[in-house]
Amino acid sequence: MTHRRRQHTVMAVAALLFAVALVSCAVFSGPQHWPERNGPVIPHDTFPGDCSVCHTSGGWSEIRAEFQFDHEASTGVALNGAHQRARCLYCHNDRGDVAEFAAKGCRGCHEDPHRGQLGNSCEDCHNEQTWFPRAMIVEHQATRFPLIGAHAGVSCVRCHDGAESGSYTRADTACESCHRSEVARSTVLDHLATGLNSDCENCHTPTSWRNVRFPHPTSFPLTGAHAGAQCADCHGSGASFAGLDSDCIACHASDYASTNDPPHALAGFSTDCEDCHTTVTWENARFTHVAEFSLDGSHVALDCQGCHSPTTFVTQGTDCVDCHLADYTTTATPNHLAAGFPTSCDDCHSSSTWTGATFDHTFPITSGDHSGLTCNDCHTNPGNPTQFTCISCHDHSAAEMLDEHDEVDDYIYASPACLDCHPDGQDR
Description:
Structural class: mainly alpha
Oligomer: single chain
Shape: elongated
Distance between the termini: 141 Å
Strand order of the largest sheet: 1-2
């Protein structure tokens, strides 16, 4: 081992022993111990007359290893918490009568590191157990700046520059006084260029710096998908946030021009987007159809192109046949065209379904054997619109009839006469 290495080893051991000595002194020294580095022991003029309380009989300079002294019983002052471990001479020394200093409270023995800036009630933050402050957040709520959200977890020195040395000068409560660096380095929105370098609370909250909320003008409230848009989406990334045109088309002209289902520009749709769209979603548009032809039944589920040409939305006729002429001409059961049915489709059909048509027949066919008949059962010639009577289908001679038919004049049987006795079309 070289001389230099031995020297380093000796120094390291000496440092270790010194550290152990300090720890031993701090840990094992009792209240009666007084380190020589603190100077000579002070006069005992005010000490108890019973010297054996502190000294042993073996020598005047020998202090009892551990003496028992009931401070509260002897003086009326109880030593609580850390004061039980304090050295006697910290309080009983040559400064003067200890009662004079005790009357001042904490400030009688403890120098105020806060220089009076936090008042004289030390017990508001400290207790006798430890000098470390407690309930700082709660006590701070009584100040001009309650600690809310992320501020509750910030160290004192972040706002009070002299906090490490016990100085708590009044801090500026304006957000920008602490958050200038955040304002300067913001890249999502250039705060400095746009003049947004004060009144941070207009957009930010103490809970999170990122969850920004801005009170948008009431002339254009941010609802639906607009609430999640970035400022630059509408205002761009420039340095000006002047008012914008509040019409939808001002921002959505490209959406209008590029939409092909249906083609808005080609069809000449209105640029009042809110007529069909909402701020919640651009999809699932709803259009209030003209009052002359309200969309009900199956019409509700139709796409616009179901009735209108995909390239133009010129109003079609509102008569059913204007859209259903092909259905009219191709229907075979019965053949509408051959039978000369009217083109007022709603006489038999409804907007809910094209099948299951109902026809208000002039001849009662709703009961008896008639109820199961189809049109072709009676109208064998669809092109013959002749009005049918009972005897048109039930032709028979007088000889086949009952005597009651004798009362019918001249055996001329018309439907009204038959129905007087056969109201439901059945035999009686």
